[in-house]
Amino acid sequence: MGLKPTIRQLAAGETLFATGDATRGFFVVRKGQIRLVRFGASGRETVLFVARPGERFAEASLFAGTYHCDAQAVTESTVACFPKTEALAMLQNDADARLDLTADFARQVMELRSALTLRDIRSARERLLAHLVAQAGADGRTVAIKGLLKDLAATIGLTPEVLYRTLAQLEAQRAIQRGDGTITLT
Amino acid sequence: MGLKPTIRQLAAGETLFATGDATRGFFVVRKGQIRLVRFGASGRETVLFVARPGERFAEASLFAGTYHCDAQAVTESTVACFPKTEALAMLQNDADARLDLTADFARQVMELRSALTLRDIRSARERLLAHLVAQAGADGRTVAIKGLLKDLAATIGLTPEVLYRTLAQLEAQRAIQRGDGTITLT
DNA sequence: CGCTTCATTGACACACATCAATGACAGTGG
DNA sequence: CCACTGTCATTGATGTGTGTCAATGAAGCG
């Protein structure tokens, strides 16, 4: 982005914006976690998304007048704020930046749809294999595991225990091979 | 869109494009269903997305040289084809069109993230209630059910039977009230 | 009227979530 | 340098919620 954001610190539990507030722009998490929640008439709250470091949120606020959910810091957090007016002006004027942003959104849409379709696979074994196939590198067989296994478990919608078990089972059946930070399909 | 697409008929099982093909553009389903699948080195296939009438797919192909998955018609289908070059030219020249497209992508990103977060709720009862809260109309209590209940079941990742049961249970507990095509939270 | 699909309810089994315990490992502080 | 602490990875035991199979009624449709 050719934009220079302002940085904002948030204490745990602090509110970044609330439903009905005039939109100020979109944000990127630098540190901590930001929860986007919506409250129903019954008072029941629904978590729409939990943004983690590196993730962008409230993008649609660029095209709306008010926010449609609340944003609260789960833990002590730092966020980069990209003002709406500047971002929109960039979309209007800067051809390269505009295509970048549009292309990035398009790529995210496909990624998210893949992730959602993956969740439709009930079996832990099949879901994990499908994820590995989708994440496989150039050779189509090797998958790099970046980060913790428990985080992988969360991204594919399994509990860590089930993931560990399933990995062990697949390895015992020689369907995969586990290396340091990598998994190879066989 | 100010674009006039070409229409294409597909027989059940017919392939619209395959992995590695040069990108021709993006598509909108008019009738039928189109499956986007990826094949792993092992031959295992992974369904990335099933596009239904009104849904757009292969948007990211506008920003890539080749397709990264196969598109096959599940049933006899009709798709509208929007050529890449024209679409990109329109994005360059027509400010309104590109803002529309970007806004639509941004909205889809948020919707998909909400849908994905919803899937993290294990309990059928809680997941359904969260969905209803998120979908509630202006009064925050009334949800219009467009389409079949079994389709609702699919979108929130439940089997139809479980959805029917959960709805009946919630109504018996007076947590919701069911009307003709509507559900009201109480 | 058959035929099809949807909505609904019942019965049952199993896969996954949950709780619990252990070892490995890194970081920390005395 | 060594207890101490915390987190992650791993495996075991157990229960339950959800999926699955099955049957029925209702409604739309040719």
What's the CATH class of the largest domain in chain A, please? Mainly Beta
Within the largest sheet of chain A, what's the order of strands?
1-8-3-6
Shape of chain A: globular
The CATH fourth-level homologous superfamily of the largest domain in chain A: Jelly Rolls
Largest interface: A-B, 51 and 49 residues
Tell me the total number of β-strands of chain A. 11
Major β-sheet profile of chain A: 4 strands, antiparallel
Q: Structural class, from secondary structure content of chain A?
A: alpha+beta
What would you report as the Rg of chain A, rounded to the nearest angstrom? 20 Å
**N-to-C terminal Cα separation of chain A, in Å?**
40 Å
Walk me through what this model shows.
2 copies of one chain form a homodimer. Chain A contains 5 helices and 11 strands; from the N terminus they run E-E-E-E-E-E-E-E-H-H-H-E-H-H-E-E. The first copy, chain A, is an alpha+beta fold and 186 residues long. In chain A, the strands form 3 sheets. The first copy, chain A, has a 4-stranded antiparallel beta sheet with strand order 1-8-3-6. In chain A, helix 1 packs across helix 2 and helix 4 crosses helix 5 (160-172). The longest helix of chain A has 25 residues, at 95-119. Chain A starts with 5 loop residues before the first strand and ends with a strand. The relative contact order of chain A is 0.13. Chains A and B meet through strand 5, helix 2 and helix 3 of A and strand 5, helix 2 and helix 3 of B. The structure holds a DNA duplex (30 and 30 nucleotides).
